[in-house]
From TrEMBL:
The keyword Transcription regulation does not apply. The keyword NAD does not apply. The chain crosses the membrane at residues 23-43, 63-83, 95-125, 145-167. InterPro entries: DUF347 (IPR007136). It comes from Aeromonas sobria. Keywords: Membrane, Transmembrane, Transmembrane helix. It holds the Pfam family DUF347. This is Membrane-anchored protein.
Length: 183
């Protein structure tokens, strides 16, 4: 629930900057990139880690949620800038961000680069990927989408995410049960 609310807030921040204040998407993308880098820099200088496995103090929790909030605003700005501002379209931007995620993961598997760095790069890229997929599904065919509409697209995302959460929860539950029996 917290991630959903943060995603909505981050999206609203970007949309209001663009639609109400006239801030170009490329400017928002650059600003949010610097804010995210500053957040990571401050977090790392204070805590000497950016690992999500080490979020065990209120300060780290605050820094984590700050990074997540900025990530959603950045992802919305970057996704909209690429698909709409650069006139690439929703399908191509979906393929672009999905491809970038695949490349980062492949580099991680092959070169064994830092897992924390890999996590955050992929995490940042998932928001513009999600925004591009959402726009591809929800926007009318006239505007380059598939025309499912916002309600149907939201329902599709809800069902998809719910199934993933249930699947992952069942895997964790089985793992805990197996480990408990082995003790």
């Amino acid at each position: 629930l917290a991630v959903v609310l943060v995603s909505i807030f981050g999206t609203l921040v970007t949309d209001n900057l663009t639609d109400q204040m006239g801030v170009p998407l490329e400017v928002s993308t650059i600003i949010f990139t610097f804010i995210l880098l500053a957040t990571f820099w401050f977090w790392y200088t204070q805590e000497k880690t950016l690992s999500i496995r080490s979020i065990d103090t209120p300060k780290r929790e605050l820094l984590y949620w700050s990074a997540i909030l900025v990530t959603f605003a950045l992802g919305t700005a970057a996704g909209d800038w690429v698909s709409e501002g650069m006139d690439i379209g929703y399908m191509r931007s979906t393929l672009l961000f999905g491809g970038l995620i695949s490349i980062v993961y492949a580099v991680y598997l092959i070169a064994r680069v830092n897992v924390v760095l890999t996590f955050w790069i992929i995490y940042v890229l998932t928001r513009p990927l999600g925004a591009s997929i959402g726009d591809l599904l929800s926007q009318s065919e006239k505007h380059g989408g598939l025309g499912f509409g916002v309600t149907s697209t939201s329902l599709i995302f809800f069902v998809f995410i719910s199934v993933l959460v249930m699947y992952q929860s069942s895997k964790v539950s089985k793992h805990i049960t197996i480990n408990h029996r082995g003790e």
